[in-house]
Amino acid sequence: MEPDKLVPLAEDWNRALCVVAHPDDMEFGAAAAVARWTQQGKEVVYCMVTSGEAGIDGLAPEDCRLVREREQVESARIVGVDKVDFLGLPDGVLEYGVALRRAIAAPVRQHQPDIVITGNFRDTWGGRNLNQADHIAVGRAVLDAVRDAGNRWVFHDQIEQGLLPWGGVREVWAFGSPQAGHGVDTTDHFDAGVASLEAHAAYIDGLGWENWDAREFLEGLARGAGTRLGASFAAPFEVFPMGWGE
């Protein structure tokens, strides 16, 4: 059966906030799209809920934190992002709930984005491979935190501390979702996406994936989405409108 076509994402926006669980999450699916958008002159900010400090088995968490934050800042720079926030929540044990919603609502209010981007938070990646618990918790919390951010009486202490309510997020986009119905052509920015992933050298080396190649991996993802969009390479996204009745 022929896969459903992807609908091109709207690009009539100016500011996006990307909220993901770990350093490297953006690079495993959306960095080439970010490179496209920053080249268009759009402002993109990264927000890492954790610092990925539990991600390298042979490196103690506090040492790992420094390495992974440094790699993420460089990775972001490669695709034109010069602002990376680290919320400092504990890696590997994130739980969906009020505390996580509160933590994410703050940068939404601070940066006032038009679009919020997160990663796939479905149970799987579309097959037998289960998603990771932090990804699921963060994605679910992002949807609620975006709505929380617009209500001055939710997490009102943030308002008292100077953050203004922000209800201007039009949509949340989840990259890599098996239920993606939209996409963006990343053909001209694919190399930047590869370089951005390769910047996570210590993390990738720590995974112990023998003969793993970042370009080959990303091509495998991007070609299928590209076929559905009518391009050589593309990044797929599931779109969640934030307005009533949409």
Question: How do the strands and helices of this protein lay out in sequence?
Answer:
Elements: E1 7-8, E2 15-20, H1 31-39, E3 43-48, H2 61-78, E4 84-86, H3 98-111, E5 115-119, H4 133-149, H5 156-160, E6 171-175, E7 182-185, H6 190-198, H7 201-207, H8 214-229, E8 234-241
Parallel strand pairs: 1-7, 2-3, 2-5, 3-4, 5-6
Antiparallel strand pairs: 6-8, 7-8
Helix pairs in contact: 1-6, 2-6, 3-4
Describe the structure.
The chain has 246 residues and is an alpha/beta fold. It has a single domain (12-241), classed as LmbE-like (Rossmann fold). It has eight helices and eight strands, in the order E-E-H-E-H-E-H-E-H-H-E-E-H-H-H-E. It has helices at 31-39, 61-78, 98-111, 133-149, 156-160, 190-198, 201-207, 214-229, and strands spanning 7-8, 15-20, 43-48, 84-86, 115-119, 171-175, 182-185, 234-241. An eight-stranded mixed beta sheet has the order 1-7-8-6-5-2-3-4, with helices on both faces. Helix 2 (61-78) links the parallel strand 3 (43-48) and strand 4 (84-86). The mean pLDDT is 96.
What's the short version?
It contains 8 helices and 8 strands. With 246 residues, the chain is of the alpha/beta class. The chain has one domain (12-241): Rossmann fold (3-Layer(aba) Sandwich).
- Return the CATH class: Alpha Beta
Largest sheet: 8 strands, mixed
Low-confidence parts: none
Strand content: 15-25%
Count of DSSP helices?
A: 8
Number of domains: 1
CATH topology descriptor:
Rossmann fold
Arithmetic mean of pLDDT: 96
CATH superfamily: LmbE-like
Give me the side-by-side strand order of the main sheet: 1-7-8-6-5-2-3-4
How far apart, in Å, are the first and last alpha carbons? 29 Å
Number of E-type strands: 8
User: What gyration radius follows from the Cα positions, in whole Å?
Assistant: 17 Å
Q: What is the general shape?
A: globular
